[in-house]
Amino acid sequence: MSVDYQIHDLGNLTLQRGATIRDCKLAYKTYGQLSAAKDNVIVYPTWYSGQHYDNEWLIGPGRALDPAKYFIIIPNMLGNGLSSSPSNTPEPYNGPRFPQVTAYDNVRAQHRLVTEKFGIKHIRLVVGWSMGALQTFHWGALYPDMMDLLAPFCGSAKCSRHNYVFLEGVKAALTADAAWKEGWYTDKPARGLRAAARVYAGWGFSQAFYREQLDIKTLGYSSLEDFLVAFWEGFFLPKDPNNLLTMLWTWQHGDISDNEIYNGDFKAALRAIKAKAYVMPGQTDLYFPPEDSKFEVENMPNAKFVAVPSIWGHFAGGPGTNPVDVDFIDSKLKELLAS
Amino acid sequence: MSVDYQIHDLGNLTLQRGATIRDCKLAYKTYGQLSAAKDNVIVYPTWYSGQHYDNEWLIGPGRALDPAKYFIIIPNMLGNGLSSSPSNTPEPYNGPRFPQVTAYDNVRAQHRLVTEKFGIKHIRLVVGWSMGALQTFHWGALYPDMMDLLAPFCGSAKCSRHNYVFLEGVKAALTADAAWKEGWYTDKPARGLRAAARVYAGWGFSQAFYREQLDIKTLGYSSLEDFLVAFWEGFFLPKDPNNLLTMLWTWQHGDISDNEIYNGDFKAALRAIKAKAYVMPGQTDLYFPPEDSKFEVENMPNAKFVAVPSIWGHFAGGPGTNPVDVDFIDSKLKELLAS
């Protein structure tokens, strides 16, 4: 089977929490051409369970992320099934033995891709949705001199306690299924995946989204139950449970200051971000509420708070679900890139 | 074993959806003395999984609900383990065969208690938290000439679509456990109960509650994980799963207009409520957001919108968890009772 993406071989990748992934693979895809001066680079990390395909909605001719102008790199997150993951790693680090990976580990690996593979020294923009925003913040804090611009949207620089609790619910629902077998499943724990999907459904979109019946009136599902089955269960069922749990752990432990540079000083890590940033929460996002973004912006030297005026909850940010929100985000990225 | 409550025998109770509970029991407790004129009555229904004990935090000397002045009746909801429930009903309607009960059924049964048992013709106030608020709205719509005052807090007259989805997540988590056995469990499905508890944890309190670490700083838990285990799992584990699922169904299908009087016309049912009402949502309640209360108030002829200024989410309303909120609600009830 031919694939449409490339692999950067990281060799033995020693992780922040101590384990080493042997022969670690970073899957990525690029769009557009790297200029001779290597000054047209955009890095655009993936989100929870997403793969590079799921990021493409923001890229295109006439868009801010226009491949005619920019060289756009989408690195796949470790654990997402394309980069090294529980589902594709050989024994003994396969399945539930796949090690704990942090956003720090991911961004360190992405930095190697950008520098080792392409010889890139400077990045114009790092941008990402949700866990992609978490990685975007990490880029800014870990390599503050490397980029001009940052645009994290519908995400945070540190997993909040409430967000952590929401994810505990998703995890508990998935792992309540006996077929999960502590990760050593032989058959898909479908009941657990469906339960996780239903838990997620209340969080993904806002109260107002459901009140206005946008699942039916805009997205075209035939009923609320049809939306829960076709959209939500359909979204979770094809995904590998151990991959989901690996990325969930990454998300829960995301924190730009949890490393040897900032030693847990979150404000110091925010202050260190030099890039001009548009921090763009969804106005009705239930797990990345605008209040958390405001705190980040207040502590970043060169950031602007730009709420996405939308009742689409977390999905104001992606993945291209609502065209109106896509246009809003695209216009803000154009503004940022023009500055 | 002696009990501290009474049983009103409802005989054969035919339910709105068609089934009949034979020898149906309504458990209740009263506080204070019924006056000779029978004009000092307060009805105070229970909430999801709560029993009359769990309502007592709002009752006491010097409180609005003062037993020295009022005759307070707490009827236990059908399915709550004291009134007829899956856990205490004999074959063949036991366990998962316990029929679907609506809030309409509950309030019809409570009306029989109030009139048949006590000969009460007029009620001063109906008040309730959460599903207790749902029943309070039902009292107002089903018996509009019977009471002076209504005070539903942190609840709604109709289960919103988003609230329905949140409950789908709780249900899916509980029933993902193979030990649940479609309701024919022999051993407690502890894993499912714990999962349901963790799902609920993110909804019960607000983002700000967790951000401010009130679980530790105010409630005194030793860590977030301690709060999830000791408070949340501890809350769910003792409860009967079929009882929980019965009440969850009642909640999801709550709607004051879903009956032969209003035939689904929600605005007409709201307009029919004659009582002076304080509708009091929690300002940060994630599943009964103030917007839904505003809609209700706008369509009720004699209602006032009174948001509880609290970051305690749904628990701004109860069950007595935050003394500041208790005082606020108590003061508003005093104001209402004085009018």
From TrEMBL, chains A, B:
- For whether the record's keyword set contains Membrane, the answer is no
Q: Which residues form a coiled coil?
A: none
InterPro entries tied to this protein: AB_hydrolase_1 (IPR000073), AB_hydrolase_fold (IPR029058), HAT_MetX-like (IPR008220)
Q: Which Gene3D superfamilies match?
A: alpha/beta hydrolase
Keyword terms: Hydrolase
Molecular function, one GO term: acyltransferase activity, transferring groups other than amino-acyl groups
Active-site positions on this chain: S130 (nucleophile), D285, H314
Q: Which residues form the AB hydrolase-1 domain?
A: 63-316
Q: Which Pfam family, just one, is annotated for this protein?
A: Abhydrolase_1
Q: Tell me the PANTHER family matching this sequence.
A: HOMOSERINE ACETYLTRANSFERASE FAMILY PROTEIN (AFU_ORTHOLOGUE AFUA_1G15350), HOMOSERINE O-ACETYLTRANSFERASE
Q: What is this protein's record name?
A: Alpha/beta fold hydrolase
- Source organism (scientific name): Bradyrhizobium pachyrhizi
